[in-house]
Amino acid sequence: MKYLERCLMETLRMYPPVPLIARELQEDLKLNSGDYVIPRGATVTVATVLLHRNPKVYTNPNVFDPDNFLSERQANRHYYAFIPFSAGPRSCVGRKYAMLKLKILLSTILRNYRVYSDLSESDFKLQADIILKREEGFRVRLQAR
Q1: Among candidates 21, 18, 4, 8, which has minimal Cα distance to 84?
Q2: What tens digit of pLDDT does each residue of 76-117 get?
């Protein structure tokens, strides 16, 4: 289950369910990157899709690597470098429930079936609505074990 959890987290890193997070600033925000101040009341948008593929944070950011979520690698990363369910006081309250449900469902499916797809990742056409999804859905084949 530990490896499955790392695979799920890596999938969420590469394809976060919420591709953009917008917040209205409650106070002026001085950026560490220079003498820039974003004024109170401005809306700030965080593109989680881009954040999660930052090569300064993840080596080979476009390659699926569950080892990105080994405890020693996570310890060397900023807490907010991985925010598939948002973060801070406005983060998803159902995060732990969602992860637990995903682990149970996937482990049950993978124990009983082999999963096949004729598409490669390069064939994916993504659509960013309220959530990030594949434009043409998920066509997979299951074969009983």
Answers
A1: 18
A2: 899 899 999 888 787 888 888 989 999 999 999 999 999 998
Distance CA 8, CA 25 (A): 31
The pTM for the full model equals: 0.84
d(CA 66, CA 130): 26
Are β-strands 126-128 and 132-134 bridged in parallel, bridged antiparallel, or unpaired?
antiparallel
DSSP secondary structure string for all residues of 82-133 = --BTB-GGGS-TTHHHHHHHHHHHHHHHHHHEEEE-S--GGG--EEESSSEE
Q: Tell me which CATH code domain 2-144 carries.
A: 1.10.630.10
Q: Where are the domains of the chain?
A: 2-144
